[in-house]
Amino acid sequence: MSQYDVIVIGGGPAGYPAAIRAGQNKLKVACIDEWVNKDGSYAFGGTCLNAGCIPSKALLESSELVHRAQHEFAVHGIKVGDVSVDVATMQKRRAGIVKASTQGISSLFKAAGVTGLQGHGKLLKGNKVEFTGKDGKKEELTAKHVILASGSSPTELKSMPFDGKQIVDSWGALEFDTVPKRLCVVGAGVIGLELGSVWRRLGSEVVVLEALETFLPAADGAVSKEALKHFKKLGLDIRLGAKVSGADKSASGVKLKYTDAKGEQTLEVDKVVVAIGRRPFTKDLLGDGTGVQIDERGFIKVDHDCKTDAANVWAVGDVVRGPMLAHKGKEEGVMVADLIAGKIAEVNYKTIPSVIYTAPEIAWVGLTEEEVKKSGRGYKVGSFPFLASGRARAMEATAGFAKIVAATDDDEILGVHIIGPMAGELIAEAVLAMEYSASTEDLQRTIHAHPTLSEAVHEAALNADKIAIDFP
Ligand code: FAD
User: Fold this and answer.
1) Pyridine nucleotide-disulphide oxidoreductase dimerisation domain spans which residues (predicted)?
2) Could you read off the pLDDT of 157-174 as tens digits, one per residue?
């Protein structure tokens, strides 16, 4: 029986960093992962590297280039003629990026002394783990600590199950080998908007059906309003308050049925991407009597430090409460590996940034203006439009703004909301500022290079006290 200090079940962005940090902490660690790609190959990296963050960003980048070549190059005086898209090459590039990223994990494991085990892991009573290898052979392992990082899986619509061809999940939508003429995306969340943007820019007619009446309710109100305007300009036909009730499939496509304020509607498309959310994945993860509890929504119950109800069993990432984001899982994994090694560690759940990698990009951290208003705390707002940024103008990327919400009593920054070029990069400054409980005055007094997009954050901080220089 192999004995470890730590066994991690799940090698996604929550599990593999936990294993690496445990190795860096000189603990004997194994990381078990069962991810199998469509070609039958095993790969570490979980959803994020194989079927999520990385492949979606690869295609977002390619499709954005197509869009810019078609709509923006001429303004720069660049003539390219007709732009055509070779989907096979685009997908080959996407697959290459994924492969390089997942293979990189094996090297990282080697450097940190982590034993990577490919196959299924199941927690048994008494901190034992049953490992089933690729060949089906079972082995019992023991560990002083077990970290569960089994992630999540896409939620299916009962009325319209995935068939992998006409009705697909987000993974399927990342691997289309041709551009669908008519595409329906069910769900106007982050994943739906990113995938809808990719295929729209590549030429699909895209209808997005969203059951909620409000667009992007998690974002600051001003940001969602601005975003909706730009998605419509891109040609995404976003229909809010549209509840899908079923679909009829035929060789020529899918006839979707949905209801909205006007009653029953139908929509004929070639393919449907269902992106209505993700569920915690715990299938065959827990044996009898482990003591690990699952809550009513299917998440593994953990405390603030990611401890489960079972002694020395921890859980991190999408399988526990909190936003389903790779960086949230990574920080939880690293925290747990440090806590196991007796170090001080904590995740600050108030400063987890959210990013939507569309064009314009959307990013935020902290509270929205609506949330601050509801809290009753006195607040001030500072905004700065990218239209007033010299760098944004030089980039032909003047859509959007940066907005800061801060407390009036002590000037603390409570939330930062950006829609515009490189918003996902710009938000890092706001995260750092909030991590150190910075005030708008701290940002106001920080020198930002000129001309950079980051000046928009600086000017928004100045604008919170109505002393912006480049904006009235
Ligand atoms: P996962 O990545 O799901 O990994 C869990 C791993 O555990 C998998 O490999 C699984 O096979 C394995 N596993 C499960 N059970 C067992 C078992 N019993 N034995 C062995 N192995 C097991 N997040 C971002 O932060 N930024 C983005 O840009 C972003 N884009 C996304 C785009 C798409 C299309 C999707 C679908 C998701 C995106 N996400 C993004 C979300 C992100 O992918 C997840 O939050 C992240 O992958 C969660 O990490 P995890 O390690 O908890 O779980």
Assistant:
1) 352-461
2) 999 999 999 999 999 999
Options 3.30.390.30, 3.40.1190.20, 3.30.70.260, 3.40.309.10; CATH of 353-465: 3.30.390.30
Tell me which DSSP letter residue 252 carries. Answer: T
Q: What is the mean pLDDT of residues 121-134?
A: 96
Q: What is the pLDDT of residue 472?
A: 86
Which amino acid residue places its CA nearest to atom 29 of ligand 1? 53
* 81's tokens: 């003629």
Q: Which two tokens stand for residue 70?
A: 């078609």
Side chain identity, residue 210:
E
- Residue with CA closest to ligand 1 atom 9: 46
Buried b (16+ CB within 10 A) or exposed e, 294-327: beeeebbebeeebbbebeebbbbbbbbebebbbb
Nearest 5°: phi and psi at 145? -135, 140
User: Hey, whose CA ends up nearest to atom 30 of ligand 1?
Assistant: 53
CA 269 to mean position of chain CA atoms: 27
pLDDT digits (tens, 9 = 90+) for 252-298: 899 999 999 999 999 999 999 999 999 999 999 999 999 999 999 99
Task: Select 3-153+279-341's CATH number: 3.50.50.60, 1.10.268.10, 3.90.190.20, 2.40.10.340.
Answer: 3.50.50.60
> What are 211-254's pLDDT values in tens digits?
999 999 999 999 999 999 999 999 999 999 999 999 999 998 99
pTM equals 0.97
CA of 362 to the centre of ligand 1 (A): 21
Per-residue pLDDT, 1: 67
Question: Is 387 annotated as a binding-site member?
Answer: no
Please report the atom of ligand 1 found closest to the CA of residue 120. 19
29 CB within 6 A, ligand 1: no
